[in-house]
Amino acid sequence: MTSITRVHNRVSTSQGHPWSAKADRLQSATGIMLGGFLLLHMHFESSILLGKEAFYHVVQLLEGGMFSSTGHGFPIVTKVFSVFMLLVVIVHAAVALRRFPAQLGQWRALRLHMGSINHKDTHAWFWQLITGFILFFLVPVHLFTMILNPEIGPHLSAERVYHDNAWLLYVLLLPAVVVHAMIGLYRVAVKWGITTKRSGLRKFAKVLIIYLLCLGTASLVSYLFIGSELGIPVQPFVPE
What sections of the protein cross the membrane (predicted)? Predict the structure, then answer.
């Protein structure tokens, strides 16, 4: 019996178990939460492209500045939300790990299997495995950074990206999280029968991937330019 057959049999057997059905629903639910958050997060971050003041006001809004007498937001909001998202990531990763090939032979069998067929969904699943493995290490680093230092702003965020060299993390994180999330949302839509038009949905997912990569790259470059102009110590941005 080949490794790929053993993997298939193991997954098929587990799918008949009540826990497997619950894990599938939990994986899909947390995946939708994370994918939806990514779409919102990247657009909020990209407000820096409209200028420092635009990003400043977006941050104050998201951190509850309307409830402050000074109009300034509460960084604790970012800290608490980052803790919550870390918990969602942990749950998502825990239920998703049962789908990962556990042995080197299974990975080889999967690669041979992919080489012998031209099944687009199988190739998409493979890339989701690869990016999921990468995110297993990168996402906690990003979230722990936000938990330990939740201060956000045009200058403070640029300081993190440029002076603290966080761009090295984001250059790897951006393509991995975008590809993983968009493929994940595509697979959830197909899995739960939200749509049967796979070809059209795949094209839409590809468009979203390209769009988000361009948006994220432009935002990252903007932070780098802002950071390069800041002196040390960095002073928080204050609108005129």
Answer: 26-44, 76-97, 124-147, 167-186, 207-226
